[in-house]
Amino acid sequence: MNILEIKNVNKRFGGLQALGNVNLNVAEKTVHAIIGPNGAGKSTLLNVLVGKLIPDTGSVMFDGQSVLGRKPYEINQMGISRVFQTPEIFDDLSVQENMLIPCFAKRDGAFAMNGYSSVGSQRDVMDKAEEMLVEMKLADKRHMHAAAMSRGDKRRLEIAMCLAQDPRLLLLDEPTAGMARADTNNTIDLLKQIKEERDITIAIIEHDMHVVFSLAERITVLAQGTPLVEDTPDNIKGHPKVREAYLGETQVAA
Amino acid sequence: MFGLSKRDAGLLFVVALLCLFAPFILNPFPEGSAMAQFNGGYPDLMQRLVIFGIFAIGFNILFGLTGYLSFGHAAFLGVGSYAAIWMMKLLTMNVIPAIMVSVLVAGLFSLLVGWISLRRSGIYFSILTLAFAQMSYALAYSVLTPITGGETGLQPKHTDPRILDGALPAGQSPRANLFGLDMKASTQLQLGDWVFTFNAGYYIAAAIMLVAFYLSIRIFRSPLGMMLRAVKSNQQRMNYTGLNSKPYTLAAFVISGMYAGLAGGLLVAMDTQVGAERMFWTASGEVVLMTILGGAGTLIGPILGAGFIKYMENIVSKINDNVLHGWFSFMPDGIENFMVTIIHPFVGKGWHLTLGLLFMLVVIFLPGGLVEGGQRIGNLFKRKKADPKSPDGTTTTPAE
């Protein structure tokens, strides 16, 4: 069953056709990678999925419901969480508070006027946040200022914050961009672990082929705003169209 | 204690003690001495210290937590004042209805202003709030004269209906009271050369400030407070975490508007008159200064800032050339005149200059305000006391 169905999506920015007739289905509980050269429309597609951009035509259905015209927070409450290219966390708050906020969002929804009781008295949310901190190996950093963490830890925290909401679809936008090899491998291991342990669909946009081929079960190649091929990693590796899209010509030594 | 952590309860307790003993603390110099000039323990000033403390505590809930800088909070103070004075004119000189209605009316007005202004953030939000406040000021001065009294302002008159109060005896002016206790009632305690004044109005205002401070601590420590800090930290992440930041900022705006209304109502309760100048933009700017000077985003900072500025305004502005000549009279005439000329621009009407310089010094050297200054001094002492075996005996404490 498809959890995400994108049909005939078009998006123009002035003279630029950023997305041209995109049709893409993401099957439930798979890891689906979307790759493509710079300017292929990957980020535009992602921004359409999370409600930041509204496409000119087409439909985007998540679990049978349209996401178009909904605000980012509403789409998140439907069960789509997004990890950003540069980790977006609450820099001025402690690691624990960073973890508590998505737990409150999960329990109380988009807004709750909870201004009298202390945070510490909300046992269920505190326990849930603690559980996630332990699971993601961030427990010893709980009182740390989030801004003071390493890039890899920030990424780990951001993923933990997304998972705390028990999303059905996790969107990752180049999760290893700008990371050292060791951090990249840690992130790959973390995502593999998440995939095995959780009932979750992961859609990943990535530049780094090492990451893509380590994780993905299906791969869609996007070029000039249009899906070129969709197949399994093994078939994508040697696909001539993919080489063309990436390298600009077909006659390249293997 | 009271659902607060030990640390917060301690802070509340210290503030309560300061309020209780303010008549002593602010009057350290004997009456008639040269330094009596610096005594601040008279009712009018003490009332202003706590009332503007309330104003700044509320402003800090918006600015300190969410980072939204409103430049129009004096409008809510003014609206609260007008609401209070109308209660006194129509209903009763008892301050309770006046204060309650001032909070309510300011809350409704801030809901309207906030709902519109919060469509923008940053500088545009500040300008929108400033525009609203100046509009309110201009309206109060002109078109709304039947409601606001225009240039003359409003005060309770002998002829007002006051349906809950009995008729006043002829010639007696209406006085604000709490179930018969006159707000201006004072008792004096004379100890040697020292005179201490205990004023009913001050203690009522101080008690209300303590309640306001207590509620602000609860908000700071609540999930709402955490969400408001999240708004300041990263709205993008907030929206992608399923949280709608708009009602959160609006809630903070209305709460701070209600605090401003409460302060406005109390100003009327203590001194039963109101004019449109209370809404002027300089009054909005003043609460911004108070909050930043004391330490935005800290619990106690706004109270310190409000106290500091109101003390300066009332004490430094009273120092005139005669007083200066008195201080330097021991010097030869030429030097005396020279010293007076040097200091003259900084005192009396020039007190703003002193305040401006101090504000610059604080912002440059103590970006965390007076609270940061206090913490640095505290850390100095801790370092001295720290165990020599552990080289780093200090722990950086989070801002209170």
Automatic annotation (TrEMBL), chain A:
For this protein, the record's Pfam families field holds: ABC_tran
Please name the PROSITE patterns in this protein's record: ABC_TRANSPORTER_2 (PS50893)
Q: Which InterPro entries match?
A: AAA+_ATPase, ABC_AA/LPS_Transport, ABC_transporter-like_ATP-bd, P-loop_NTPase
**What Gene Ontology molecular function terms does this protein carry?**
ATP binding; ATP hydrolysis activity
Which parts of the chain are coiled coil? none
> Any idea which UniProt keywords this protein has?
ATP-binding, Nucleotide-binding, Transport
Query: Among its keywords, does the record have Transport?
Result: yes
The ABC transporter domain covers which part of the protein?
Answer: 4-249
A GO cellular component annotated for this chain's UniProt record is: plasma membrane
Protein name as catalogued: Amino acid/amide ABC transporter ATP-binding protein 1, HAAT family
UniProt organism field = Sulfitobacter marinus
**Record lineage:** Bacteria, Pseudomonadati, Pseudomonadota, Alphaproteobacteria, Rhodobacterales
UniProtKB/TrEMBL annotation, chain B:
- UniProt keyword Heme present: no
Q: Where found?
A: Cell membrane
Membrane-spanning segments: 9-26, 46-63, 94-116, 123-144, 200-220, 247-268, 288-311, 323-347, 353-374
Task: Report how it sits in the membrane.
Answer: Multi-pass membrane protein
**GO CC aspect terms:** plasma membrane
Write out the entry's keywords from A to Z: Cell membrane, Membrane, Transmembrane, Transmembrane helix
Q: Which InterPro entries match?
A: ABC_transp_permease, LivM-like
Subcellular location, principal: membrane
- Which terms does the record give in the GO molecular function aspect? branched-chain amino acid transmembrane transporter activity
Q: Please identify the protein, giving its name as recorded.
A: Amino acid/amide ABC transporter membrane protein 2, HAAT family (TC 3.A.1.4.-)
Source organism: Sulfitobacter marinus
